[in-house]
Specification:
By secondary structure, the protein is α+β, with helices and mostly antiparallel strands. Helices cover 23% and strands 32% of the residues. The longest helix has 22 residues.
Length: 457
């Protein structure tokens, strides 16, 4: 970045203020942002504070001011003298030296560490990347790697199984196989199954999951909003002197700074629907279709919607044995009576993520008055199996549905002869058309958990 874009005047004011007891959290966040964004600002800060400490101690405040004025033509001799003389030489030297240590240590904690300096084995893999050129699906990420992008979305699956889906503009760092540090952006974090302990560090908070999904929004000044969708999290920032603060599903807080207590804010999921969707590997949804929100996901039998086909993400990384029976495994269009009744056995064991697609209007449709709904969704991994028949859905609920899923109230599962399901040749795009008469139309879609599945090509 061009040095002319750096507000040196403001940087100098913040550096002076940082040695004062009245230095505020807002000023600290502003200084951090300048240091993070501008390498030249970091170099200037180190030179300024260290040189100032030495001069103030050995030459005295007046001589230091005159020396700075001779080296920095942007500011007058009087201005530097007025600022420097506020502090005794010994006191200022100690404060400035301490500031140098804090800035250097802080930057080393956040600096980009080349992957070649770390273990060769990636601790995460890019599972989703849309409208961004910074990464591609399948890229491995190592501890210490930074990810920065201005627009689009990126989803990372960690070695632990945790998933982090981020919307730009964003900047985050891979810390370990079960943790990350995020400086800016909006994200959904999901920790499925029995995984626990994923840790997300932000400038304002440390968030530790207890088996959950949650969203975060980090502003440029470091202020952080947190909303818990499922399960619970602990806040372990340094402002929680009496112990971690527990947040449960439905809780939302806003934290202004690392020394500021969280403030409750209204719970709102709408800001996170794009990253929520991306965290499940759904790249795009079109037509009369939407993804179920967090509070709907576990209760498909109770969710009524007369205007949309709903996508319910279910269990992830389920190991299916060879011989597991599904309705279809190949690309094509499935509509005829014969096609809907066929059975195909999987030829090899597969790890899959499951999705239930449903239309359940409740009483919003007049009996025997059909309505036709169509929608398209694109996955970031290949579809490896489709289940159309009611018996298959019933039998697979126990292993593919969420453990606590409520299917109560659903009748006439499966689809009708006039319904149509089409799978594209690359196995990633599914088009569903339901011609609804009575009851509930449902299918189950099995997607490869691993992007490098044999069906990926």
């Amino acid at each position: 970045m061009n040095d002319s874009s750096i507000p040196f005047e403001r940087l100098e004011e913040l550096l002076f203020a940082s040695t004062n007891e009245t230095f505020t959290d807002e000023e600290r966040a502003e200084l951090n942002a300048l240091l993070f964004d501008h390498p030249a600002a970091r170099n200037y800060a180190v030179q300024f504070l260290s040189f100032d400490a030495v001069l103030a101690d050995s030459l005295g405040a007046g001589e230091a001011a005159r020396h700075y004025a001779s080296k920095n033509k942007k500011w007058s001799d009087e201005k530097w003298f007025e600022k420097v003389r506020r502090f005794s030489s010994r006191h200022r030297a100690l404060l400035a030296a301490a500031s140098v240590v804090m800035i250097m240590c802080g930057w080393l904690m956040w600096r980009e560490i080349p992957s070649s300096d770390l273990e060769a084995k990636p601790v995460g893999v890019v599972q989703h990347a849309s409208r961004t050129t910074s990464l591609e699906v399948g890229d491995g990420l190592h501890s210490g790697d930074w990810v920065r992008f201005d627009k689009g979305r990126v989803a990372v699956k960690f070695e632990s199984g945790a998933k982090l889906a981020v919307e730009g503009p964003a900047e985050f760092k891979i810390v370990s196989n079960n943790g990350a540090r995020m400086v800016r952006g909006r994200a959904t974090i999901r920790v499925p199954g029995k995984i626990k302990g994923f840790t997300l560090d932000t400038p304002a908070e440390q968030i530790v999951d207890l088996g959950t999904s949650f969203g975060v929004t980090i502003e440029r000044n470091g202020a952080t909003a947190i909303s818990v969708f499922e399960g619970s999290v602990e806040l372990r920032g340094r402002q929680h002197a009496s112990g971690p603060q527990l947040l449960a599903a439905g809780d939302s807080v806003h934290v202004k700074g690392s020394s500021t207590a969280p403030d409750e804010i209204p719970y709102k999921v709408s800001d996170y629907l794009q990253t929520w969707q991306a965290s499940f590997g759904v790249e795009a949804v079109e037509g009369a279709m939407r993804i179920a929100e967090p509070n709907e996901r576990a209760v498909p039998g109770k969710v009524l919607d007369g205007e949309h086909l709903l996508i319910f993400p279910e269990r992830e990384s389920v190991e299916l044995p060879a011989g597991f029976v599904v309705s279809a495994t190949e690309p094509g269009s499935y509509q005829s009576r014969l096609g809907l009744k066929q059975q195909v056995a999987l030829g090899a064991p597969l790890a899959v993520d499951s999705y239930l697609i449903q239309f359940n209007p409740g009483k919003s449709l007049t009996p025997n008055s059909p309505r036709r709904f169509s929608g398209t969704l694109k996955f970031d991994r290949p579809v490896v199996g489709l289940l159309f028949r009611a018996a298959m859905l019933n039998e697979s609920d126990a292993i593919l549905g969420l453990p606590s899923a409520d299917f109560g109230g659903v009748f006439r599962r499966g689809i009708n002869d006039s319904d149509e399901v089409s799978l594209s040749t690359d196995r990633r795009t599914l088009t569903v058309t339901f011609d609804v008469i009575n009851g509930v139309d449902q299918i189950r879609v099995l997607v490869a958990s691993n992007p490098s599945s044999p069906h990926s090509n």
